Target: DEAD/DEAH box helicase
Amino acid sequence: MSFDTLGLNPALVKAVADAGYTAATEVQTRSIPLALTGADLMVSASTGSGKTASFILPALERVLAARGDNAKRREKGVIYGPRVLVLTPTRELAMQIAKAAGIYGRHVPGLRVATVVGGVPYPAQIAALRGPLDILISTPGRLLDHLQTGKAVLENVEVLVLDEADRMLDMGFIDDITTIADHVPATRQTVMYSATFAGHVGRLAQNLLRDPQRVDVASHTDTHENIEQRLHWADNANHKNALLDHLLTEREMEQALVFTSTQRDADWLADRLADMGHAVASLHGGMPQGRRNRVLQGLRSRQLKVLVATDVAARGIDVPTISHVINYGLPMKAEDYVHRIGRTGRAGRNGLAVTLAERMDAGMIRRIQQFTTQSIPAKTIVGLEPKSPEPKMFPPRAEGRFDDRRPGGGRPSFGKAPGRGFASKPFATRDGAAPARDARSPFDRAPAGRSEGFAKAPRKAFGDKGGFKAPRARSDGYGR
DNA sequence: AAAAAAC
Model:
């Protein structure tokens, strides 16, 4: 559906068109008209579904509608605080949403958007909170800090948006969110986004929302239709490294996001890859915020080809040129796998999500397959086949939608064109391991001409790699 | 046993 039928101000429709979007996504089509009525909303939408615009556009609509009030508000010399407050779990997400607000709000005269997140100096934030403000995007901790010191005023908030509510609860923000919500007028509109509304999130919704409308666009069992998933079994860390290097030097590799399980592994792996000549940096919560910002900027500007990150990057990061997501270390929760792979295949592009697993990871692989009710097809790369037999995997329990969607059995493998699925062998048994070089996939082309180990030719490296320490667990001395 | 987030 087109944006101009959603009831949005032409200034917003124009900004959306300027940004290159023609059609609204499902979550936008369904939630924007509801949001414009002022109703409370519970929205479950998968990552990359255009979620941010679905709450930023109605927020901007409200800002536009209130333009007349602003002169009055500014005159009085009183701190009014924002009209719209958005809470997000991570700092990067907050800044990304702020950027989107700037883009969609470019034709909104005098729009003021501010972010309040941890890890950055206070004075600029305090100044921003004091000035006239339309939209405030914040992580809970720092905002609560400002509330306690009286620097943040939320008594004129009209719209409260909770993005990634399930994640914020996972991170222990329940009390912070409740306290912040207590500072916001009860007459507000509240919009809550979450992958699920079961358990704690549902209870929080009950406490914060009034007669909410529900918009269910996607569940975790839905396929990312434009993301091809693959599994490579590796004998050991050495083998995993060789597979990784192969993937990173594929011709189709535009930019890769490589996930590790720990901060230490992220630094370590980025350091090794830099030594190999990759334009790489790491990203994790243990890094100073300034450097986190620079790294993300390096990824966006495409100075970086490879980003090695912890799950801080699992949600929200929206960089359309990420062609590969590689799970070098598995996530701790199956749910996080779904968020990780959603970092590729964005803005209508195709993406490849490759999981490198050792035998000890078989349990997690099984849980992921169970969670998504899909199996991840196991593949091999010529010259890099695992020497030990693959773990025996059992098919995930097929639930309703799984069968409903593909009556013939099997899942689409890449894109939507017929005949691309692996219809006859939907499960990753040893027999089901398909040849790696499958010419039907855009990611499968002729071998790069190298069968093992890392590339030796030095290429351009990115950023510093200070503070690197080899992890004790890695005594196998791969590579060199 | 991880990561994230306030100082």
Notes: Residues 89-91, 117-119, 139-145, 167-168, 170-173, 176, 261-263, 284-286, 310-312, 314, 331-333, 336 of chain A lie near DNA strand B (CB under 10 Å from a C1'). Confidence is low (pLDDT under 50) at residues 400-480 of chain A.
